[in-house]
């Protein structure tokens, strides 16, 4: 059991350090029991050097005389293992006496600063990461190996995803180049005249030639031509 040191400590804390079972991408929590060792009302506040990694509830409060309070500290899911499973995070639990019937919402903002309140006691707690125990019961060594294997697996998975993205990108690039070649080939070849169009045009020309020849060879066609010539010939000038 940990106290803040000195003769008459306001509170005691159990356990005296925060122990978290560390597994990648999994939350872990540790409960602290804070006991008021006095006949006074004691206010407390929890601080940490890494506030983004931990979720503390309650992080402040008022404990009745000779009463206790449970504080749950939750380690957020982590994506990487710390080097050698060593954690440098620290927690600080501050406490001071307050008047009777004081509510936590009524606490002054500077009540836990030593400059304004010289009766603030502090209890420092270190953090330990414990690898999950294996089925063989080898403890920390097996847990550390499992953590490293999980980390290596995540690295390999990320590498496969990167390679997949490269293959997809190259495939899209090749498809674009193929479409470009098709468009260039079409422009170089040009629309032109198809063989079918040429045959149809030739056939129509032959038919028109036969019809014109037949029309001019008939007597009525000659008379029509003479009439047409008279109509088209302009009258003589006076």
Automatic annotation (TrEMBL):
Record key words, sorted: Membrane, Transmembrane, Transmembrane helix
GO biological process, any: endoplasmic reticulum-plasma membrane tethering
UniProt KW Transport keyword: no
UniProt keyword annotation of Plastid present: no
Pfam families, sorted: Motile_Sperm
Chain ranges passing through the membrane: 192-212
One GO CC term, this protein: plasma membrane
Domain MSP: 10-130
Listed Gene3D superfamilies: Immunoglobulins (2.60.40.10)
Entry-linked InterPro entries: Ig-like_fold (IPR013783), MSP_dom (IPR000535), PapD-like_sf (IPR008962), VAP (IPR016763)
Similarity comment: Belongs to the VAMP-associated protein (VAP) (TC 9.B.17) family.
Protein name as catalogued: MSP domain-containing protein
Provenance organism: Linum tenue
